[in-house]
Structures are given as C-alpha cells and as structure tokens.
Amino acid sequence: MSPSRLGIGLAALARPAYITSGRGRDLGDGRGVADLRRRTWAVLDAAVAGGVRYVDAARSYGCAEEFLAGWLDAHPDADVTVGSKWGYRYVGDWRLDADRHEVKDHSLEAYRSQSAETLRLLGDRLSVYHVHSATPGTGVLDDTALHRELGALRERGVAVGVSVSGPSQAGSVRRAAEVEVDGRPLFTSFQATWNVLEPSVGPALAEVAAAGARVVVKEAVANGRLAPGGERSDAADRLDALAASLGTGRDALAIAVALAQPWASVVLSGAVTPEQVRSNLAATRVELPTDVTDALAGLAEEPDEYWDARSRRPWS
Predict the structure, then answer these.
(1) Tens digit of pLDDT for each residue in 15-59?
(2) What are the extents of the domains in the chain?
(3) How far is the C-alpha of 12 from the C-alpha of 19, rounded, in Å?
(4) H helices within the chain, ranges in order?
(5) How much is the pLDDT for 235?
(6) How far is CA 180 from CA 3, 136, 148, 201, in A?
(7) Residue 70: which H helix or E strand, with range?
C-alpha cells in the first residue's frame, strides 16, 4: 500500500498540551515554541522522506500553520498537499494548566478572521480548508451567508470540507453532503474519526466517497489508546496479540485497518517523533488476513461511550 495514503497531523505537535496519551514520555519538558518548531520540522522531514504527501493543520493547533509555513519555505519543492481547518481558536496561552485550550466559533466573522490568517501564512500552498468539528448544534451547516463565502474560496481553487466529531458524526457528514452553492456540492472533503473502537461513521463516509469526495481519517489510534505504550485495556491487549501474530506493532495494525477501508483517501498519523512516524509507516506494509479483520471488528465500542470517555481525557 502506498505511503502517500498516510498523512501527518499536527494537532499533538504544535501546541504544548493535547489529549494524546504518553505526551510526558514523548515530549518531556521540551514544549517551548522553539522546541516544538524543531520537533515539527523533524517529524515533517521524516514523514515526507517516508512517502507521506498530506499534512493536516488547524488554526487551533497552536503554531501549526506557522511551523508548517516555515517548513514549506525551507522546502519549496516539497510535494505535499496542505489541509487546514478553521472554527476553533487556540486560547491556551502556551500553558499545560490552562483552564481552556481552545474555543469553538463557527460564525461568519470567525471564518473571515481565521481564513485571512491561514491564507497569510500558507498562501497558495493551501489546498483544502475544513470547517473544524462541524456539528448540527453550531448552525454551521445551515448558514447560507457563510456557505456563499466558502463558495468564493472554492472558486479560488481551494477545496472546502468539514471535519466532524462526536457520536453523531454520520449525521453531520450526511447533512454536509447536502449543502450546495451555485448548484454544486460545497463540501468535497470530509475528515472524521474512524478507528477499530469507533467505526460508526464508516457507512456515511462510504457514501460521500462514492460521490467523489476525499475522505481523511483522523484519530486512527484513538488519541493514543491504540499506540505502543498507551493505556492498558482489554481492547489494547487484544490488538497487541493480533499485531504480534502479524509481526507488527499495535499502531501499525490500527492504522492498517483504517487504510484498508475502500473509502479512505488519507489516514492521518499523529506522530510526534520521527521514530513514531516510521512505526506508523509500517502500516502500509501490513497484510490483513480475514480472521484478523473479523477479530478487530469485535473491538468496537458504543459511540456514546467512546465519545464520553474521549471528552474526559486530560490535556497533558
């Protein structure tokens, strides 16, 4: 399987705190801006050297767009597709103990402000711009004035998409697929959480992929729950056993299952070290026997339970 189907996400790289397991082990105390810039560049170097061709950022990922812009300036010939997102603001003040790390705002004013900053940093390297965590409750999927401005961005050659989250991901995907501007679907890229613990959005993603949309899978290792050295659980132990039977790591197996979905265009790695990048890239070499895929299907949790547990994960 081509490494180009693996992408690199910057959510856990470009801000000091996130909800991924093992950050103390992986990052230690080196979480200053300069430290994380160096780390981001090293991870991007390793990812692109390994064949990765998609990079995912967001306005709320601390300095992600700034770090990525600097790396792109230093690598002007890099063959990568750049996606970013708007709709959350980073408000953590570069602190681990901040009361809040990001604030959601799907207003037209927020889009105008954030898109201007994204375009200032990334310019014509921006290929895909997603609404960050589009859910019915924010009204972002029903705001026709906002849709018109997103349509204008589309006319500039930037694909417009949505990322989704929560137990109602499938409903958000299907609602977004109905939105049109000037008689054409507005949203042609869909980013969603899919992993062996939370596969419920799969049928909706298959529908939009069949209609020609790009599908980007995020959180394939469930925010570290399915990564090496992550939290212990019955599901993790079963994944370890299956991975060992295939001679690979649990992260590679979890990502390989996502890559095996016929509707998945890109599966994001959340690696924060070059070593994790290489471990994740092993997923592209995993062959999945039917008995293993059948066993993995039994790991799925109820969506409400999965998302409730995710909402309670500490920022660290």
Answers:
(1) 999 999 888 899 999 999 999 999 999 999 999 999 999 999 999
(2) 3-311
(3) 8
(4) 23-27, 33-49, 64-74, 108-122, 144-155, 169-178, 202-210, 234-246, 250-259, 274-281, 290-297, 303-311
(5) 87
(6) 33, 16, 9, 22
(7) helix 64-74
Give the tokens for residue 171: 């409903």
Q: Which fold has domain 3-311?
A: TIM Barrel (3.20.20)
Q: Identify any residues that bridge with 102 across adjacent strands, giving them in sequence order.
A: 90
Pick from 192, 157, 160: which is nearest to 173 by CA? Answer: 192
Helix (H) or strand (E) holding 130: strand 126-131
Residue 2's nearest CA partner among 50, 57, 55 is 50
Tokens representing 27 are: 């990052």
Mapped onto helix, strand or coil, the DSSP state of residue 85 is strand
Report how far residue 236's alpha carbon sits from residue 304's, in angstroms, rounded to the nearest whole number. Answer: 19
Whether pLDDT at 80 is above 80: yes
pLDDT at 231 over 80: no
Predicted local confidence at residue 136, as pLDDT: 83
Of 45, 37, 47, 41, the closest CA to residue 15 belongs to 37
Separation of alpha carbons 34 and 58, rounded Å: 19
Given a contact cutoff of 8 angstroms between Cβ atoms, the answer to whether 271 and 277 are in contact is yes
242 half-sphere exposure, CB direction, 13 A CA radius? 29
DSSP-assigned beta bridge partners for residue 131: 86, 162
pLDDT digit string (tens) for 102-160?
999 999 999 999 999 999 999 999 999 999 999 988 999 999 999 999 999 999 999 99
6-9 and 54-56: which strand pairing? Answer: parallel
pLDDT beyond 80 at 181: yes
Span 73-84, average pLDDT: 97
The percent of residues in the chain predicted with pLDDT above 90, rounded, is 93
Whole-angstrom Cα Rg for the chain:
18
